[in-house]
Structure formats: C-alpha cells, structure tokens
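Handout, section B. The chain below has 80 residues.
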Amino acid sequence: MISTRHITRSDVPALAELLRVNREFLGPWEPLRGDEYFTAAGQRCVVQDALARYEKRTALPHVIVDDAGHQGAALFGAGE
C-alpha cells in the first residue's frame, strides 16, 4: 500500500539516493540543478527549508512510502 507521512530529517539519505539514481530519468521534467542538490547535504537543506515553511504554515512536506519502504517526496503549499 502506498501512503504519505510528514517528512523528517531522517529521510534525507533515502531522498538523496532516490534523486541520485533517478537523476537522468527525471531530468526532462526537473529544473536544472547543481550537483550539490543530489547529495545528502543538498537534500538536508531542502528538507530543512521545507520544515521551516511547515512551521510558518506555508507548506505541507511529506514523503511517499510503500510497504517495501521505497519513498519519494511531495511538497504541498507555496512555491520555493
């Protein structure tokens, strides 16, 4: 079953890996981003920013998970 849950800082390594392995595939639909974005450090910044916006009630950052533990990110709310 696929579900969502609130994003946490502990999601950073898995999100960075997911982006790294899917970078080429997602390229045509994603904005141009520097290499740093696809690292754990880059994703740590993304998640921290999303959580800060959540605290301001301008975003609802979630991860999408399935029974196998695979995940992706979804950010609902105001733009970046």
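Note. The longest strand covers residues 59-65. Compare this with the example in section A.
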